[in-house]
Amino acid sequence: MKREKIIVIDFGGQYNQLVARRVRECNVYCEIYSYRTDLQKIREMNPKGIILTGGPNSCYEEGAATCDKELFELGIPVLGLCYGAQLMTQVLGGKVSKAPVREYGKIEVTVDPTCKLFSDVPEKTICWMSHNDYIETIAPGFTRVAWTDHCPVAAALNSEKNLYLIQFHPEVLHTVEGTRMISNFVYHVCNCAGDWKMDAFVENSVQALREKVGGGRVLCALSGGVDSSVAAVLLSKAVGDQLTCVFVDHGLLRKNEGDEVEAVFGPEGNYDLNFIRVNAQERFYQKLAGVSEPERKRKIIGEEFIRVFEEEAKKIGAVDFLVQGTIYPDVVESGLGGESAVIKSHHNVGGLPDYVDFKEIIEPLRDLFKDEVRKVGLELGIPGNLVYRQPFPGPGLGIRIIGEVTAEKVRIVQDADAIYREEIAKAGLDKEINQYFAALTNMRSVGVMGDERTYDYAVALRAVKTIDFMTAEAAEIPYDVLTRVMNRIINEVRGVNRVLYDVSSKPPGTIEFE
Ligand code: XMP
């Protein structure tokens, strides 16, 4: 089936994935491409519309990212945002220069409500501005349709050619009517039908996977995380027990997590697939004995994981397909999508394909953002607690225990973490905080319990607010909640006599406590 799509042309700004997400929230499929992408390729994709993103440069600087004038002659509607707006102006004969007043933050903008972009938007509306340059003179054929006290051109259009530009950032939630503006562009300017819906995605994917796999055998490494769970269920719907899922329990999962994964995917669960749980706890603990350096621990866990998976795969024999839970941000961030170079090297266990006898990789979630993966999960009937699971590192509690990992320390951190998560949820904070967990410091100190002197561990609590997990701030948890958690951990978890709250932000800290 041919999907209608909008293309985002990436000039390296920080909100580029957000632009694509907002378009998709309007039920229109959207992909990100670098500004270096060949014009012919764009023409062949035949998009319903094109959005040019922000970027870090000034468009009049030597060597700044640019675009072909012909991009505006394709007869396809174009919307330029921030840098994209300035570039469009410059390329089409207007003038961009350094702004006399730099605008940053939430600013009141006056819009012309008769413009299609601002349909149903109040005349005065708060928008997110972030620019040093401004459009001094609009390009010939353009009309100004929005302005602020310091920015004479906050939006403009050439209605004959369907070219629109916006100086602010509608993709950022601080722009109160931003989603409406993007929706106006895709529906009223590009005339999209809005066929990107997750129920249809499920239906089409199941169909496509069935055709692709035929009578073949499929193998999937299931971690219990959102991506691999959703990928597994999609395949199970498509090919039933031609799918085998291997779940390696490395003994470094959260409390009861192994059993929870088994309850959902195992023989008593809801899905038609072959589920193999490998209880490899002891093997991992043995390999980790005496090791305290964090990178070494990560390496040992990663390697051992591959070894265990490989042994299982050998027992199963050759398969036709190996499933991977790659999602769209992985594609973009590994440099295949937009302009945003390799931002982070991928944490996840790499190298699996080399060790397993298979013909082809299947990545059923490759086009989806995380929030879309979650919607697909709900659509497939996967339990909410699994779908909304917090990020959890592949090496698991192995890196949340400072120093040597032992079965005893795993028990302590599992119990403390379970209490912490329970109390955060009870206080209704679980939706506000993006990631929170307990870690076990390697510090023991003197305390008193009853009349006894103790010499026990300190547990560290971590909770952060973050948008992209690249930077983060410690969450301000109410003191009474912290006190309750502290009381319960000290009373209920043997071996702990102190509870500390980590207030560090990232940077200089990291989100994990390793
Ligand atoms: P840091 O600690 O680097 O973590 O601030 C950023 C985010 O990445 C998660 N993280 C991992 N995720 N495998 C993963 O899948 C890993 O090895 C790994 N290490 C860290 C971390 O939980 C946080 O969300």
Explain how this protein is built.
With 514 residues, the chain is an alpha/beta fold. Helices cover 32% and strands 24% of the residues. It contains 15 helices and 18 strands. The chain has a nine-stranded mixed β-sheet, with helices on both faces. Strands 12-11-10-13-14 form a five-stranded parallel β-sheet, with helices on both faces. Strands 15, 16, 17 and 18 form a four-stranded mixed β-sheet that branches. Strand 10 (218-221), helix 6 and strand 11 form a beta-alpha-beta unit. The longest helix is centred in the middle third of the chain and has 23 residues, at 294-316. The chain is globular, with a radius of gyration of 26 Å. Residues 347-348, 391, 393-395, 435, 469, 506, 510-512 line the site of xanthosine-5'-monophosphate.
Short description:
By secondary structure, the chain is of the alpha/beta class. The protein contains 15 helices and 18 strands. A 9-stranded mixed β-sheet has the order 2-1-3-4-9-8-7-5-6, with helices on both faces. The protein has a 5-stranded parallel β-sheet with strand order 12-11-10-13-14, sandwiched between helices. Strands 15, 16, 17 and 18 form a 4-stranded mixed β-sheet that branches.
